[in-house]
Amino acid sequence: MRIARYTTGEDPAYGVVEGEPGHEVVAAVQGDPLYQPVVFTGERLPLEDVRLLAPVIPRSKVIGIGKNYAAHAAEMGSEAPAEPLMFLIPNTAVVGPGDPVVMPRQSERVDYEGELAVVIGRICKDVPPERVPEVVFGYTCANDVTARDLQGSDGQWSRAKGFDTFCPLGPWIVTDLDVSDLSVRTRREGEVVQDGRTSDMIHDVAALVSHASQAFTLLPGDVILTGTPEGVGPVQPGQRVEVEIEGIGSLTNTFVRR
Ligand code: MG
């Protein structure tokens, strides 16, 4: 199931996206499917008639994972860590498909990082890897936007990855998906700049969720970003970046300087 959060100009609503690419329809549902079973309202809207929003606003946290693809760790001039390297992104950084990413005046270098995002569906703690499927609600695309210069000069990553608008999520959450070997592709102005596969992760989704849950209680709506493949690079103001993941869809945002 593809679960979208959207607006037609009024309060955000949730719906199930049905149909083939180019002919999708949003079937509206009651309430938030993260917390209650899917019950259709009967309203159906062409996808092009709604504005998609971030499919989830994490109530407590976005957990990022650093250097989870060996080739990316190498391009950053470092070794991949033995254990998953975690950082936190404030939920105020989350935006949706088509929303602008605002490049802050404090940074001279803002990079894209296309990533698979995991959305947690149940409160959980100390989850063994084999039980992770029970706590995952679904998956979406993420851009772990990074002020690369500040990541270095700050010595830690909170500001560099936590600016407002630095965590685009979308276009929707796919609830039934085998994520063990999916293509993760990023395009900048239409040119492919990252072309990885989730099978190249050092720590797989089950290991990442299990590891995170050993430090933090995970709540419904928490999001875990699973790391970026090689090919990260800078974005110039006005450029459009698209993160496309096989089986999910694509998330596009334009970067702006204010
Ligand atoms: Mg990242």
Q: What layout of secondary structure does this protein have?
A:
Elements: E1 2-7, E2 13-18, E3 25-29, E4 40-46, E5 51-53, E6 62-66, H1 70-75, E7 85-89, E8 94-95, E9 101-103, E10 110-112, E11 114-120, H2 132-135, E12 136-143, E13 146-147, H3 148-154, H4 158-162, E14 167-174, E15 183-188, E16 191-197, H5 205-215, E17 223-225, E18 233-234, E19 240-245, E20 249-257
Parallel strand pairs: 6-17, 8-14, 9-20
Antiparallel strand pairs: 1-2, 1-5, 1-14, 2-3, 3-4, 6-7, 10-13, 10-18, 11-12, 11-17, 12-14, 15-16, 15-19, 19-20
Bound molecules: magnesium ion.
Structural features:
single chain, 258 residues, mainly beta, SH3 type barrels, Fumarylacetoacetate hydrolase, domain 2, 2 domains, 20 strands, binds magnesium ion
Task: Tell me about this structure.
It is globular, with a radius of gyration of 17 Å. The protein has 2 domains: 2-52, FAH (SH3 type barrels, Roll), CATH 2.30.30; 62-257, Fumarylacetoacetase-like, C-terminal domain (Fumarylacetoacetate hydrolase, domain 2). It has 258 residues and is mostly beta strands. 13% of the residues lie in helices and 40% in strands. Strands 1, 2, 3, 4, 5, 6, 7, 8, 11, 12, 14 and 17 form a 12-stranded mixed sheet that branches. Strands 9-20-19-15-16 form a 5-stranded mixed sheet, with no helix packed on it. The protein has 5 helices and 20 strands. The mean pLDDT is 97. The structure holds magnesium ion (MG). Magnesium ion binds next to loops.
